[in-house]
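ok so heres the complex, two chains, lmk if somethin looks off
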Amino acid sequence: MSDFEPKIVAFVCNWCTYAGADLTGTSRIKYAPNVKIIRFPCTGRIDFMLLMKAFQNGADGIIVSGCHPNDCHYSTGNFHARRRWMTFRELMDYMGVDTERITFSWVSAAEGARWAEIVNTTTEKVRKLGPYTNYQNLVKLGIEEEL
Amino acid sequence: MESIRKKAKELLEGNVVQVIIGYENGTSNKVRAAFIKDASQVDRLIYDERCVQNLAVYLTKHEVKHSGKMGIVATIPVMRTINMLIAEEQIKPENIVVLGIGEDGKLLEFADLHVMEDYLKKAKIELSAKDKEAIEKIKKMSVQERFEYWSKALETCFKCYACRQACPLCYCTRCAVECNTPQWIPVPASANGNYEWHMLRAMHLSGRCVSCGECGRACPLDIPVHLLTMHMAEESKKMFGVDAGFAMKMDSVLSTYKPDDKEQFIQ
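and the predicted structre for the whole thing:
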């Protein structure tokens, strides 16, 4: 498994983490190229099922990130998101989805270095865990493949 | 049983309600829901240990709702459902008369729904030992074992959506599984699609489920789907202190928040 490169999907909010990731780039900080960033208007917009869709489509790890509490551009979006993640994480764990593969974080627009660190640590963690074959096999089991 | 019939007759004759929702004998030793609109028919009503269906599911149905004021034979989970439906503004409290059935199986007469609230607050309500044990067993497994348990359990699901239809709180007329732009949940009963469907259902009922267990009873393949929603109900209680169905006014878990919600996993 030495040549395994994990696929990481990051769901980030437009106002903080996306801008933070931008700062990482303009600061010329290098970080793992495994991450694919998907920009959302707000963390409150990130539907819980999108995480499962990412796994379904071959992601090995996921990062979900937005503004720190009290810093939401829309005032309350991240508070709602926090409750959703607390609930959904519990459900995923109960249903046997590996929550180790999902990093939830708050990254502000000023924390370019922190973003690089979160991507790097998540990538390393998932690299150690290996490909998420559990969920990928579940997808293959279905008739989606025949269709 | 006699007391239910007597009360139902009284309500219908006095024109207090236009329909009584209760149980009656069905075919082959089964009970079914009865909708009594005429006082002369009240003798059809029965109540015994076979009467476990959550009748509150009919309260939001167009045909029943529009027949006027409704009387309903309600066990404790049904009373909790009624509170929940009122909290979510699906039914009006002034349109409901509850023929409550207490823990001892005797008829309870509530002057109004506030009296019912008080009764529920005092009653000892917890999950059945069987369900509790099953949930504990799953919680003790490793993540891998839990994944195997649920993929195996959900394997036989052919997406009849009986769990959804039987659930009194799954009242949306347009469900996410029927939306196809984009196709959110795959239509065929595939391994991954089943997994997603049950996850979505459990998530939509988080903090709303009153643990009546109707979804599990409705499942033709005896998949323990009620263990998902019951677990989420327990967790909502633990995480947010929200216990659904005890008051006619309550904040829903996922549409409200507290600035000091505590979690340990967000970096």
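quick notes: The beta strands of chain B are 19-25, 31-36, 45-46, 70-74, 96-101, 107-109. thats all i got rn
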